[in-house]
Specification:
Layout: H1 7-24, H2 28-34, H3 39-47, H4 66-79, H5 81-101, H6 104-115, E1 121-124, E2 140-144, E3 147-158, E4 165-171, E5 181-187, E6 193-198, E7 209-220, E8 224-225, H7 231-267, E9 269-270, E10 273-274, H8 279-307, H9 313-338, H10 349-357, H11 366-380
Parallel strand pairs: 1-4
Antiparallel strand pairs: 2-3, 3-7, 4-5, 5-8, 6-7, 9-10
The protein binds acetoacetyl-coenzyme A (CAA).
């Protein structure tokens, strides 16, 4: 067992860390206030190869692995959750469906521009009445000659209204439940593809979260992804991978808040000495650091399992569950250490607290992660 990062992984992490500190961090407070989408940062991330870290170079990616990808999301989220979730949703949800299930033509047409960061991707599973019950999809797809006719809507779609491509689920056979759902591809600007409101969120305010509507939207027959009726299973597999990156996002936010809290505790003087001298503060820092370290081990291990082509669904759910819940704890404790300063925008931890809250909800709530974990455990115990 070797817990050290390879020199290649260390160099990658250090490069992303430096980039995040220099290019992303200075804008984080402002874009949270203005809700301005960080197009400029994404362009710079694309130039560094960060928009397609885990995809092979032949498909426009950086030829890295899942561990590098998790570290990239962690380092970007450490300074800005909005840019972090945009990167995670683009890579795991927008681009990976093409990598996992696309035909060679679909990989060429859609994955290449996504992995190279020329285009932005999104993923549409959730609906107004199909959240945790992902199989409750109401959107329908009916084959009419050489075209699919799509009707329905999607909710809570990260980058939905600004993405160039969307992979989404629709029911192709109402009688078959989860086995009657297929996945489709649609490009921005297709007639009948309409955008509803952009959500005004508690956190992650510089990321775009949209309602989407399909009104007799026609897409070519070949815009089905993989085999018809495989949509539900495909999306479950995509989410297994996505959960590693949402865990990494929570980890990054926790690390960011912890770093600010340590610095503050060493500088802030009360009762004639730095507050870091007091055990009340030391115990908080010790608990925060221990939980961050445990979350990092779970996330890196699930990424490693995926890279070894070993089963990783249970571990990814555990990593996401743990990292998101400790993320909230760590950000809350950071605010407590900063006291009144923690409650104002300038000191950033209140933003991190608002941002990390989403990670216990998005890509499967903590409750869904527990269901996924328990089902794995009970299957293994047979
Ligand atoms: N990999 C492969 N197959 C899987 C699978 C997986 N991880 N999970 C389930 N399946 C298969 C099952 O084996 C089963 O197949 P068979 O019938 O052939 O045996 C089939 O899929 C149905 O599975 P279940 O009976 O387990 O399905 P369920 O209805 O009980 O749901 C669930 C299971 C885990 C609760 C699932 O619905 C789930 O994960 N829900 C949460 C969805 C979620 O995370 N939503 C957030 C999406 S994010 C988004 O849309 C917005 C955005 O931009 C971020």
């Amino acid at each position: 067992m070797d817990f050290t990062l390879s020199p290649e992984h260390q160099l990658f992490r250090d490069t992303v860390r430096e980039f995040a500190d220099k290019e992303i961090a200075p804008k984080a407070v402002e874009i949270d206030q203005t809700h301005e989408f960080p197009w400029d940062s994404l362009k710079k991330m694309a130039a560094l190869g960060l928009m397609g870290v885990p995809f092979p170079e032949e498909y426009g990616g950086a030829g890295g692995d899942t561990l590098m990808y998790a570290m990239a999301v962690e380092e970007i989220s450490r300074v800005d959750g909005s840019t972090g979730i945009t990167l995670a949703a683009h890579t795991s949800l927008g681009a990976s469906p093409f990598y996992l299930f696309g035909t060679p033509e679909q990989k060429e047409k859609y994955l290449k521009p996504l992995a190279s960061g020329q285009k932005l991707g999104a993923f549409g599973l959730s609906e107004a009445t199909a959240g945790s019950d992902a199989g409750g999809t109401k959107t329908t797809a009916v084959l009419d000659g050489d075209e699919w006719v799509i009707n329905g809507s999607k909710n809570w779609i990260t980058s939905g209204s600004i993405a160039d491509t969307l992979v989404f689920t629709a029911v192709t056979d109402k009688t078959k439940g989860a086995h009657g759902i297929s996945s489709f591809i649609v490009e921005k600007g297709t007639p009948g593809f309409e955008y509803g409101k952009t959500e005004k969120k508690m956190g992650l305010r510089a990321s775009v979260t949209s309602q989407l509507f399909f009104d007799n939207m026609r897409i070519p027959k070949e815009n089905i992804l993989g085999q018809p009726a495989d949509g539900f299973k495909q999306f479950m597999q995509i989410l297994d991978g996505g959960r590693i990156s949402i865990g990494a996002m929570a980890l990054g936010l926790a690390q960011g808040a912890y770093d600010i809290a340590v610095k503050y505790a060493k500088e802030r003087q009360q009762f004639g000495r730095p507050i870091a001298d007091f055990q009340a503060i030391q115990f908080k820092l010790a608990d925060m650091a221990t939980q961050i370290e445990a979350a990092r081990l779970l996330i890196y291990r699930s990424a490693w399992l995926k890279d070894q082509h070993l089963p990783f669904g249970k571990e990814a759910a555990m990593a996401k569950l743990f990292a998101s819940e400790i993320g909230e704890f760590v950000c809350r404790e950071a605010i407590q250490i900063l006291g009144g300063y923690g409650y104002v925008e300038e000191y950033q931890v209140e933003r991190m607290y608002r941002d990390v809250r989403l990670t216990t909800i998005g890509e499967g709530t903590s409750e869904i992660q527990r269901i996924v974990i328990a089902r794995h455990l009970l299957r293994e115990a047979r």
